[in-house]
Every structure is written in C-alpha cells, then in structure tokens.
Amino acid sequence: MTTPPDAAARRAVPPVICYPNETLPKPPLDLYRAARAGAQKVDEVIAPPRDAAHFRVPAGHFFRISSIEGPQVGDLNLWNADDLSERFYSGKSRALHGTHLTTGMRMWSSFPSLRPMATITEDTLGWYGIDAFGGSVHDVIGTRCDPYTHNLLAGGQYHHCCHSNLTRALADATGMTLAQAEPHVHDVLNVFMCTGFTRDSGQYFMKASPVRPGDYLEFFSEINLLGALSACPGGDCASQHSSDLAACHPLLIEVFAPAEGALDGWQSPPPNGYDRRHGG
Prior knowledge:
about 280 residues; about 15% helix; globular
C-alpha cells in the first residue's frame, strides 16, 4: 500500500453533519414535566435477570426504567401497539441525534411512519457525558446480543441472549409463536449500557455501566406503545455478555398516567408527511 503525497490534506477535510437537526420539531418538555408532576402510577413490571418482560403504554402516558438492585443494562424494543410493522428505528435515531440518547431526544419509528415513538424526559445518568475513552450511556449503536453471533464466535446454543429474551416477551404479549414473533424483534436502545468505538480499530466497545440502584431513564409515550425490555445476561457489561457468569439484576418498568387535562393541546404525532410516490 502506497500513501499518496496529499494524504494529510485529504484527512484534514472538515466533517459535515449528515442530518442537521435544528429543524426537528422540539418536544414540549415543560408541558411533559408539568403533566408528569401530577401523574399516578398505573402499572409496573419486573424484567428478571437474564430474561425480558413486556409492557404497554398508552399515548400520553410516561414510563420509567429503573435500576433497583445492582448495576444492570437493558435492551429495549418498542412497537406501535396497534401495528407491529411500525417499530423503533435505531439507525435513524442515531443519525438524527447521535450515538447515545439522553433527555430531549427521541426514539423514532421505522419507515414509512418515521415519527416520534417516545421522548426521553429524564435521565439520571445525564451527568456522564462522554468519557476519556469516547464512551457514553444509552447507545443506539449495538444491535442486541443474540444467539446467532454467539454461535458463530463461541459455538453452542445460548437461549438467554437479549434477542431470544425479547422474542419470548413479544410472543407472550401477543400470543404469537416464537417463529412468528422473532422477525418483529429489532435493534435496540441499550439502556444504561456504556459504549463507544475504539479510535485505533473503530471497534464497538463496552465498559462497566455507571448505573446504580435508584438511577432511571424516563420516557413520554408519543403513540400507543408495546414495549419489551431484556435484562441483559452481561449484567453491567463490564467484561462479557451472553454469559451465565456475570452478576445480573432485575430492571423495573413503571407506567404513569397524567391527570385529566394535564396535556390539553397535545396531539399524538401523525405519520410522516412524505407522499410515498417515490417518483413513480
């Protein structure tokens, strides 16, 4: 391989943000927080260690994911509760907001709807920022640990990867078979997970999550949601995932209903306005 004489100049070309997001609709966080202040808890679910749980959140409600016993990361899937073909689009959420999500950022849905599914309203790990290794929390980089990659790299059959956990949870929620449910499982928001990319090789890395009992990530549900959360078999992902050796802990999901009239003037976002003619 020969290095061209203008290599330094080529590398020095400044980057351009692919999707400037200044024109994205701004979530009305003040309205959401005022509504949350008077909200009452209407449901709670525990995602057991190395397993997943499903939950439902009506549009205009809030849901919170909390660490309750020890450092633990979770893999989150969201679907339109009325149409499973509309689901969380991690890649577009990453393109619009960056590799890690926090307060004021949104989980966007798949094409053709491409609309906000949930807005992050509170993040007790918002202080973490980006560390010296380039790591941060709540990523939309990783796809979810899965039994196929585990088999490819390590051999064997491991059934409590997050992909399998989410498949079982969706099947339980809908009455589908595992075979029917699996195609609906999708790339995740890695709640509480601390990740980044190495500067030398560009590899996806993980490190011990800074989450502690009492920490939480809270969302406003923009549409009717069906969710599934897997308490990852990697625990806090300090050293490995897809493991029966890591210390794992449950995660708590709580749903809150605002008081009548607290969201006056708010409307659930409609599907994307593109006319879908595609030049035809």
